[in-house]
Amino acid sequence: ATERTLSIIKPDAVAKNVIGEIYARFERADLKIVAAKMVHLSREKAEGFYAEHKERPFFKDLVEFMTSGPVMIQVLEGENAVLKNRDLMGATDPKKAEPGTIRADFASSIDANAVHGSDAVESAAREVSYFFSSDEICPR
Ligand code: CMP
Hints:
Layout: E1 2-9, H1 11-15, H2 19-28, E2 32-39, H3 43-49, H4 59-66, E3 71-79, H5 81-89, H6 102-106, E4 115-117, H7 121-131
Antiparallel strand pairs: 1-3, 1-4, 2-3
The protein binds adenosine-3',5'-cyclic-monophosphate (CMP).
């Protein structure tokens, strides 16, 4: 089925100047960018996004990292988009990511792991609406 998923290019990958390289991978996989914005997240916005991880020991570092520089946020649309994007990203820990995945190629640690992608269709809907209003999404 055609799905939408939320993708974030994290501060480490923006700083490495590989936004275009990562976009090219989305496009080669037939994922369409139907919305995009670059933002420097506030602490409140980052904490709200990761609210489900609030009690995890890595929460503070995660919020610190995600607010350390601008991120590029996009909505990807396509057949099986949620799983397809997760396959493109590779495992959360870049040491465990398959060769050729975004994290294997561009990430340096489990915190600075280059990209975020929604993990299910339900969380994708929530994450997309956390960052984009419906008039900012351009189906095509
Ligand atoms: P992300 O998909 O953005 O969702 C939560 C983030 O927390 C995750 O990517 C990692 O970058 C970060 N993180 C740090 N430590 C861990 C951990 N032990 N398990 C899962 N995620 C972690």
